[in-house]
Here is the input.
Amino acid sequence: MSQEGTKTRRFGDCSEVVIGACIEVHRQLGPGLLESAYEQCVAHELCLRGLRFERQCSVPLEYKGVKLECGYRLDLVVENTIIVEIKSVEHLLPIHTAQLLTYLRLTRLPIGLLFNFHEAVLKQGLRRLVISPAFPSSRLPVDPFD
Here is the structure.
């Protein structure tokens, strides 16, 4: 087990480890780069922390029984549980949160982390979204990380 796995976990999952990896990347690089650069560096940090992840995973989309390939991709899926979406925009908009919620619903994964690396302090550009399996509809309860 990695050193990170022995720590007490506030959320009961590896969210804190992922957040720590993103904070480290932001400390080293600061704002102003492309999302793809941050994604690659976050992937390296996740490796250093011993987490399993996949990059640029296809999002399954089925409409009325037909499977569609629409080209939607998840930046990172960590430990088959957490979707990590990386942005580098002036401000996070409601559409960014809506996009992540839709990805959570389509993949049936429970947790999403949205990071805006354009912020001076990464915590200001961080959202943690949790979907309850008891509410599979489009009216999803969200537990935002403040």
